[in-house]
Design a protein that fits this description.
homodimer, 307 residues, alpha/beta, 10-stranded mixed sheet, 10 helices
Chain lengths: 307, 307
């Protein structure tokens, strides 16, 4: 059994109302793999960086059980770089600079010993690259999860829908669900999106929690009301990583277990936003994680007996 | 034991993306009393209407156990009228017309047999009028709940804070909580608002659910994901009515029971938005209500055992 993760490994420079960073490590696959590593150890990361990338950070990923044989390191090239500024409400942001660099001609290659993974997490990336990964796989994974974003809906909708038709779970945010379906009601949106292929849909609503849909059921997990959201970067990816990491660990893709996975994903996201970049999820203790899960239980627990 | 409700009884004309109405019955106290009447019968409504108001509707309220001896009917005057248009997302609206009419010189008078109520619901109204009601009371109610809105924060903040210092529970929406406290984080906002007097704070987030805070605890109740939100008018008032009606019925103001009350309030609100005005909550059956509560339980129920 293995978990295959594809997505960016990158540098970010972030400005929030609380401060700013120089180049720090970011990227969808980084957050996904780190979050998943709290639950599952046989993780293969497929991505690309330049030789400007921090080797100590790659060593750290390896120490977490993340196999980097599918991470291409391009000599003389620079890593993908994103610079952004969050607005005061932290719900919206401006992109100040994007340097594709090594991403420009990225050709993902899945390592030979991970061509039949049990779990696949397609992190947010150009849909044609997500497809390239699926095309290399030999067997049918137990579960394939796809994350994407509005940018690809605007620029590569056809490719996006092709990938979507081949995955089991889609994770997007509420405005993206509305854009993809053309429906304002999330209940109606979920039905239209499930018609496009996936059996499950997770709608991430940031500070308002997350919804999990299948054809017949819906589950809602709140976001933890936090004292301070410091930096939202990577929250959605950390959610996805916690979600699929928990599913891989338990090897159970029932709706009941997916509900638990949504709660674990929400917990990982709630840590990520407390500090810049990956800082908060580099070294969580088991008791920190359990206390956080208990907070989620306490937050929504109520006892009504209908006679 | 009795439940005293103050607020508007009014006419609304509403436009939504789904249709428009001529004058229909609305008003905070109308929604509050109707919602509360599903749980509790000894309700006193204090308000004012003109003699243009529908007498059959007043008879209907009486038939629900709502005492109207505190409802002033002004001969030759017209009832408060509000006309509004909701935007496509139903989260924002424009006021097209406001006729204060009888509200202009409303002097609320609490009936002699309700001067010592156990529960008091101050519906959204000019804070000085809410205060006039509190000033007439003889005993100390078990629980006083105050609803208000941004308009009063803009125009009568001093009066609003005086009322706030005398109530047990405040119900407002998230942007109002931020305005009142000057804090973006709802956790920080709750602390500042609890410093202003109330022991409990309910933050209503519309389609994103509701948060209940006291000094040490927080509870989150989701909103039910609905196929279609038809008309949001009265949702917050229906929430407040279900909330205080359930508390009055059970006569238990512990945090645990307040959590249940938030769920019942959310259920009543989820019915109200399904049709125009009060239509959907005029005649709910017990089984409709119980099925809705069960939907709330199913929506958030998950089972994680931390060892």
């Amino acid at each position: 059994m293995s978990l295959l993760v594809i997505g960016t490994v990158a540098y970010d420079a972030i400005e929030t109302p609380f401060g700013k960073t120089d180049k720090i490590v970011g990227g969808a696959a980084t957050f996904i793999s780190l979050a998943a590593s709290y639950f599952y150890k046989n993780i293969y990361l497929v991505s690309v960086v330049g030789d400007d990338f921090s080797m100590p950070f790659l060593e750290l990923l390896k120490s977490k059980g993340i196999n980097l044989s599918g991470l291409q390191i391009k000599k003389g090239q620079k890593s993908f770089f994103w610079k952004g500024r969050y607005h005061n409400d932290l719900n919206s942001r401006d992109t100040l600079e994007t340097q594709l660099n090594v991403l420009e001609d990225f050709d993902p290659i899945v390592p030979a010993d991970c061509l039949d993974p049990s779990f696949v997490m397609l992190g947010n990336l150009m849909p044609s690259l997500q497809m390239k990964v699926l095309d290399q796989l030999k067997g049918k994974p137990a579960l394939t999860v796809m994350d994407t974003m509005n940018f690809w809906m605007d620029t590569a909708m056809n490719d996006l829908k092709k990938v979507l038709s081949r995955v089991d779970v889609l994770t997007i945010n509420d405005s993206e669900a509305r854009q993809l379906s053309g429906e304002y009601s999330l209940v109606k949106a979920s039905r239209k999106i499930l018609d496009m292929g996936p059996r499950y849909l997770v709608i991430k609503k940031g500070e308002h929690g997350a919804l999990l849909f299948n054809r017949d059921e819906v589950f809602f997990a709140p976001a933890l009301p936090l004292e301070e959201v410091f930096d939202p970067t990577g929250a959605g990816d950390s959610f996805a990583g916690g979600f699929i990491g928990y599913l891989a660990k338990t090897n159970d893709i029932s709706f009941e277990n997916m509900k638990r996975a949504v709660v674990y994903g929400s917990a990982l996201a709630s840590f990520t936003v407390e500090k810049f970049g990956t800082e908060r999820i580099l070294d969580l203790s088991q008791s920190e994680l359990e206390n956080r899960i208990q907070s989620f239980i306490d937050l929504v627990q109520f006892d009504i007996s209908l006679v």
